[in-house]
Amino acid sequence: MKLKDVIQGIRTRRIWGNTETDIRGISYSSLKVTVEDLFIAVKGHKIDGNRFVSRALEKGASAVLSEDP
After folding, report:
1. What's the per-residue H, E or C state across 3-43?
2. How far is residue 63's CA from residue 40's CA, in Å, rounded to a whole number?
3. What is the pLDDT of residue 14?
4. Could you tell me which residues come within 8 angstroms of residue 57 by beta carbon, excluding any fewer than 6 positions away?
5. Residues 6 or more apart from 42 whose CB is under 8 A from it?
6. 6, 26 Cβ separation under 8 angstroms
7. Exposure check for the chain: N or C terminus, fewer CB within 10 A?
8. What is the mean predicted confidence (pLDDT) over 40-68?
9. CB count in 10 Å sphere of residue 29
10. 3-state secondary structure of 35
């Protein structure tokens, strides 16, 4: 599936990169990210998932969805 299909219906402010990027899975945990996943960086009560974006990208995530730029 393409990123543009996954985010269809989500109100976005900015998109950096190519929305034609292939997405094979979705993960909220950088520990479980696999190649071509969409990593969703969620701000929790104790931990901010945005701290783990670099780790998710290193593990092969194709894209990141975050409320932070």
Report:
1. HHHHCCCCCCCCCCCCCCCECCEEECCCCCCCCCEEEEECE
2. 9
3. 87
4. 39, 64
5. 28, 49
6. yes
7. C
8. 94
9. 13
10. coil
Q: Tokens 């894209």 map to which residue? A: 63
| Whole-number pLDDT of residue 68 | 85
3-state helix, strand, coil in the chain (%, to 5): 20, 25, 55
Segment 38-59 mean pLDDT: 95
Q: 66: Cβ–Cβ under 8 A, 6 or more apart, which residues?
A: 40, 41, 49, 50, 53
pLDDT, mean of residues 44-61: 95
Q: Are 4 and 16 in contact (CB under 8 A)?
A: no
> What does the pLDDT average to over 14-24?
93
Single pTM value for the model: 0.89
**Quick one: tokens of 47?**
């931990």
